[in-house]
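Hey,
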Amino acid sequence: MKHLFVFGKTRFGPAEPLLGSAGILGLAALLAMGLPSAGGAQQAAAAAADDSAIVAEETGSQGARDAETMAEVADPLVQLVRPGASVELDDLMWLHRPIVVFADSPADPRFHEQMERLADGAEALLERDVIVLTDTDPGVTSALRKKLRPRGFMLVLIGKDGGVKLRKPQPWTVRELSRTIDKFPSRLREVEERRGS
C-alpha cells in the first residue's frame, strides 16, 4: 500500500522502496526537521482534505476516492507524530503518554524501523493517548535530550504523570508498547471509566 502525504500544496509520496511501504518515514523526516510545526498538524490534515479535489481533477473520480482514503490514512499519523524539539514534556502531563524516538540521524535504520512500526499501529496508540515525539539531531540540545540523555537510537515511553516508564535501545512493536501501557494504573482507570459511561 502506498501513502501520499500532503502539506499545503506540496505532495510527498509514494515512499521510496528503501524507506519501506509504511510511508511514515517522509512525514517523520519532515517532522524531525521541524516541519510542520506542532500547531500545524491540524492545518496539514485540512490541507490534505482540500487537496483531494485537486487530485480528483488530475486523476478523475478514482483518484478522488484514493485521495480521500489517503487523507484519512494520513490524519492519524499527523495526530500521532510531532517534532520533539519544540515540545515541553510538562505541557503534555496528564494529557498524553509521549513516546520519544531518538536517533543520531533520520537515516538511522532503527529509526526507520521504529517509525514504520508506530505507523502501522497508529490507531491503537491514539486510543491510548500516545503521541510520538521525534528527535534526530544530536547537534541541537533540545529539552528532551537534556532530560532523557539518549545515546544513539533510543525509545522512551513516558507516562501521563511525566515519569519515564520504559527505555529501549532497539525498536519495539506497537503490540509490545500497548501491553506495557495497558498495565499502567492510569490506563486501567481510563478503561473502567469508558466502560462505565
